[in-house]
């Protein structure tokens, strides 16, 4: 019989939470033949990732997934075989009662945020709280053995390899976004939160002898770009050039298009969790803008990942990429660190490719979740 899954998502950070759960839901359907309901409280944010969504409907089917609006007044609904509370969201009390009333107790998991911290391995898969007789379990994505792995669809890296070896396919894709790539220019994608360090980074690229073309999907960082340019009303399609730097605003793209954008670029600046993982699958050097948390807890997560990611790099390359990440996440001057990264670009590229293959040698997150359920049975 088909295993029924309910995934609950509250949209906290615009696209990160829904981005992860939407990818997971589709993969469970396509690769593991699960029946998936995805409960989302903000269909408007979802619509940006999946333009086919009708935000007026309480229930609809998209790419094999039953998408349901998570209402304030919870309807009478039978609980699924597997229940995922994404990122510690609180399930409706009526649904928790429905879990407890099932003849066969469901598997209830909290799919937590991605982290490279050491303690994650010790907590992954452990029981958490109970509701009546229904036990909840921790499930942590991660970068090492003993965690749940990373989201990665079947054949993803082969599709990426073929695309990156096909100059014409890249040109056609970029032209569809209105991008005319300058021959010899370094292509950079920029998807970030607001950041005071952006002006110094752009200034460094303006004076750089190596031309750069920065592609910026519509998002929160546009306010900083506008201030740097000294203009208002920056929208998709805008192109501005200063010195060796060309800045271009792109429309917000679907997830599959965003993957291709990352694959086209020589360097990817990303934010949050979903784009962070996709940039790693791109096999290109990257810059992560981690989501800021109270009391700077996020900086501990940043350092934990840097320790893991930079292992094996030469000291100059390690110093360059770590300094760039720390400056970016502190909103500090980027110029010197960017110059150092440029000097180490070949080693950083080879390292990014090796890191990608290392991560791909482990089971992906969807497969790990399915295996956890099978073992739990």
From TrEMBL:
<keyword id="KW-0808">Transferase</keyword>
<dbReference type="GO" id="GO:0003746">
    <property type="term" value="F:translation elongation factor activity"/>
</dbReference>
<keyword id="KW-0648">Protein biosynthesis</keyword>
<dbReference type="InterPro" id="IPR016633">
    <property type="entry name" value="EarP"/>
</dbReference>
<keyword id="KW-0328">Glycosyltransferase</keyword>
<dbReference type="Pfam" id="PF10093">
    <property type="entry name" value="EarP"/>
</dbReference>
<keyword id="KW-0251">Elongation factor</keyword>
<comment type="similarity">
    <text>Belongs to the glycosyltransferase 104 family.</text>
</comment>
<comment type="function">
    <text>Protein-arginine rhamnosyltransferase that catalyzes the transfer of a single rhamnose to elongation factor P (EF-P) on 'Lys-32', a modification required for EF-P-dependent rescue of polyproline stalled ribosomes.</text>
</comment>
<protein>
    <recommendedName>
        <fullName>Protein-arginine rhamnosyltransferase</fullName>
    </recommendedName>
</protein>
């Amino acid at each position: 019989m088909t295993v029924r899954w309910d995934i609950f998502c509250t949209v906290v950070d615009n696209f990160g939470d829904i981005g992860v759960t939407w990818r997971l839901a589709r993969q469970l359907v396509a690769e593991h033949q699960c029946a998936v309901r995805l409960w989302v409280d903000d269909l408007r944010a979802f619509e940006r990732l999946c333009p086919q969504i009708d935000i007026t409907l309480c229930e609809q089917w998209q790419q094999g997934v039953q998408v349901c609006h998570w209402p304030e007044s919870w309807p009478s609904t039978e609980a699924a075989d597997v229940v995922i509370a994404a990122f510690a969201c609180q399930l409706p009390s009526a649904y928790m009662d429905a879990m407890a009333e099932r003849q066969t107790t469901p598997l209830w998991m909290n799919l937590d945020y991605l982290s490279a911290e050491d303690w994650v391995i010790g907590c992954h898969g452990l029981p958490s709280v109970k509701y009546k007789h229904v036990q909840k379990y921790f499930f942590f994505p991660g970068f090492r053995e003993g965690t749940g792995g990373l989201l990665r669809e079947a054949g993803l890296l082969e599709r990426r390899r073929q695309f990156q070896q096909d100059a014409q396919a890249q040109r056609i894709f970029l032209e569809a976004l209105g991008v005319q790539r300058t021959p010899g220019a370094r292509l950079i994608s920029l998807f970030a939160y607001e950041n005071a360090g952006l002006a110094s980074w752009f200034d460094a690229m303006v004076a750089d002898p190596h031309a750069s073309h920065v592609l910026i999907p519509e998002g929160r960082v546009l306010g900083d770009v506008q201030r740097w340019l000294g203009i208002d009303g920056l929208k998709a399609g805008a192109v501005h050039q200063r010195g060796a730097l060309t800045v271009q605003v792109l429309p917000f793209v679907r997830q599959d298009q965003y993957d291709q954008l990352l694959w086209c670029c020589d360097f990817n600046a990303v934010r949050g969790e979903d784009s962070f993982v996709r940039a790693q699958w791109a096999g290109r050097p990257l810059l992560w803008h981690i989501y800021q948390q109270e009391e700077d807890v996020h900086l501990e997560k940043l350092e934990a990942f840097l320790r893991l990611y930079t292992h094996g790099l030469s000291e100059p390359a390690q110093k360059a990429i770590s300094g760039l990440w720390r400056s970016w996440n502190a909103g500090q001057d980027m110029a010197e660190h960017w110059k150092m990264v440029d000097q180490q670009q070949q080693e950083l590229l080879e390292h990014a490719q090796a890191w990608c293959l290392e991560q791909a040698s482990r089971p992906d997150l969807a497969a790990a979740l399915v295996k956890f359920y099978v073992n739990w049975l």
